[in-house]
Amino acid sequence: MNINLTLIGQTISFAFFVWFCMKFVWPALMSIMEEREKKIADGLEAADRADKDLELAQKKATAQLREAKEEAAAIIEQANKRANQIVEEAKDQAVAEGNRLKAAAEAQIEQEVNRAKEELRGKVAVLALAGAEKVLGASIDENANSELVNQLAAEL
Amino acid sequence: MASEELTQTGYIQHHLQNMAYGKLPAGYERADGTVLQEATWTLAHSYQEAADMGFWAVHLDTLGWSIGLGLIFSFLFSKAAKSATTGVPSGLQSFVEMIVEFVDGVVKDTFHHTNKLVAPMALTIFVWVFLMNLMDLVPIDWLPLGAQVVSGDPHLFFKVVPTTDPNATLGMAIGVFLLMIGFSIKNKGFGGFMRELALHPFNHPVMIPFNLFLELVGLIAKPISLGLRLFGNLYAGEMIFILIALLYSGGLVLGVFGAGLQWMWAVFHILVITLQAFVFMVLTTVYMAMAHDVDEHH
């Protein structure tokens, strides 16, 4: 309990330990801790940024998907339209072709009919002449009467 | 433990005496009756001898334990600082960082100036004082008895708790006091420091002597109270441990009772030693902050 030199010894050792701590302990630990703090802060910030990026990318992906869907729908619609158009065109063409064929056939038929009429006329003239020949029992001058018969045939 | 030839008073006194190594004058009659032919540096063998050594003596146990514990602190913390990484801290590093962070928080709360000494000093004080206080939890007879066995001297004085020696606590308080004065003069100038002493609390030339008296008492009281607070708390705690230890000589029943008491007091004392280390640290920081406050007067 006596106050003596220990007092000064303790003061000196106190000064020494404080100096030691100030020199070798505190700055090293503080710099490490600050560095780590910074690292953690950076990491958190990066995570935040990544989160935002992800959100953005998701939004972008959704938009792209919607766009693609719309585009696909448009393409399908267009294709349908085109198909309808092709069908219409084919129909029109078929109708036109049909009409053309019909017209041609009709023309041909008419031609045939006319031809048959001509033929018939000729044959009728011959037949009439033959009939008349038989009826008269004599031969009629073919040359003299053929004019008349032909006129008759033409009237038929 | 109090052996039979020892009285209870003797036991207590023996536990309160430091191992003093000092100079005894020529012609001094020692405790064992021999008379010294010339002035000698020697270990004190009685309370009277320790007292007669006066100022020129050192307490080997106080200095030994405090320096030893200070070295343990320095070694552990510098080791942690050297091997510290910015990765996930583990083991010693995380423990050390926890303390450093705690001290840093306390210092930042109290001390708002730039000074690269204050925070490390707070850390040193906190850990060192805590370690010194911690020696109080070692059962009070183990280390002294061990020292007596090792040295072969059955009457060797040996105190293991440096903070129960006023020399140690006041020694640290003096260190703080010198820094306080140094920083005051550095920050306020010698004139400013003197003005603060002379013109406060009553700013009038007539009141200067009164102010000086008041402020000087206040100034001196700071280190004294700082040192004596720590000393008083730990000394009282140590004293209670000694008194409890006396129960061991009172038979089986009292001995068991004493063991329970000692355990309880030790548990309570964990709080006291931490708190006292903390108080010493905070007060030191506050004094340092005062020394830096240029405008405010305290």
Describe the structure.
The complex is a heterodimer of chains A (156) and B (298). Chain A has two helices and no strands. With 156 residues, chain A is mainly α. Chain A has one domain (42-155). In chain A, helix 1 (6-136) packs across helix 2 (142-155). The longest helix of chain A is centred in the middle third of the chain and has 131 residues, at 6-136. Chain A is rod-shaped, with a radius of gyration of 61 Å. The termini of chain A are far apart. The mean pLDDT of chain A is 89. Chain B is mainly α and 298 residues long. Chain B has one domain (60-292). A three-stranded antiparallel sheet of chain B has the order 2-1-3. In chain B, helix 5 (118-134) runs antiparallel to helix 9 (251-292). The model of chain B has no long low-confidence stretch (mean pLDDT 87). Chain A binds chain B through residues 1-11, 13-18, 20-22, 24-30, 32-33, 35-36, 39, and chain B through 16-18, 20, 22, 50-51, 53-59, 62-63, 66-67, 70, 73-74, 77-78, 80-82, 84-87, 89, 96-97, 100-101, 104, 116-117, 119-121, 123-125, 128, 162, 165-168, 170-172, 174-175, 178.
Compact overview of the structure:
Chain A is mainly alpha-helical and 156 residues long. Chain A is built from two helices and no strands.
